[in-house]
Amino acid sequence: MDIRFSQRELKDLGIAWVALGVAFTAFYYNPEIRTLLAGVRADAALNVLAAGFAISMATAGVGFLLHELAHKVVAIHYGQVAEFRADYNMLFLAVMAGLAGFLFAAPGAVYHRGFVTKREQGLIALAGPVTNVGLVGVFGVLWLAGGAAGEIVATVGWLGVIINALLAGFNMIPFGPLDGKKVMNWSQPVWVATAVPMIGGAIVLLFGGIPL
């Protein structure tokens, strides 16, 4: 399988990664941003924001981009021409939403062309959420190891678990352009088997009293 990246695609991936890092930093560390803008303890706020940006890049950024790259890899496997394209308007809105204290992110999508069956289309769509589930496991290990490795490792692990669980669950909703709609169009039993635990896990995180 020959996986290649054009210069434009690499640029879009890089911009989306950085923009998502900024958006999630603005959301998670909104009080520090307000402190910085107020000119109170600016040095301390800058240090926290720098660490927060690195954490956001390693959790939200990685989760979103590997989700999209999973679509690309599976699409190419089925003979498609596939490339990621950033949505600059949505990335701008994501940053503005983060600054306003809201969480919103739609970095772009992998666009592919060529003939695919319903099954292949469903598998291409399913690849993204399944990748996020895998990342939940990876970040879960970091979270559990955090007690011995340090607070930053635990924070990266915990936020990585939350973000990737939410990404998997949200994208499996069978509506509009979301991955869940394409999976359901292919196979309702497959959708039930995969979407129910993914969406259930996201609901637990959102409404189970677990801090985001």
Structural features, described:
The protein is mainly α and 212 residues long. The protein folds into 2 domains: 1-115, no CATH class; 125-205, no CATH class. Helix content is 75%, strand content 6%. It has helices at 7-28, 30-38, 42-77, 88-99, 118-149, 151-171, 179-186, 188-207, and strands spanning 81-86, 108-113. It has a two-stranded antiparallel ribbon with strand order 1-2. The longest helix has 36 residues, at 42-77. It is globular. The model has no long low-confidence stretch (mean pLDDT 88).
Note the topology.
Elements: H1 7-28, H2 30-38, H3 42-77, E1 81-86, H4 88-99, E2 108-113, H5 118-149, H6 151-171, H7 179-186, H8 188-207
GO biological process, one term: proteolysis
Organism: Halapricum salinum
Transmembrane segments: 12-29, 49-70, 91-111, 123-145, 152-170, 190-210
Strand order of the biggest β-sheet: 1-2
Please give the radius of gyration in angstroms. 18 Å
Structural class: mainly alpha
Number of separate structural domains = 2
What is the terminal-to-terminal distance? 39 Å
The proportion of residues in beta strands is 5-15%
Question: Which of globular, elongated, flat, extended, rod-shaped describes the shape?
Answer: globular
Percentage of residues in helical conformation: over 70%
> What's the β-strand tally?
2
Order of helices and strands: HHHEHEHHHH
Main sheet makeup: 2 strands, antiparallel
Number of helices: 8
Uncertain runs are none
Mean pLDDT: 88
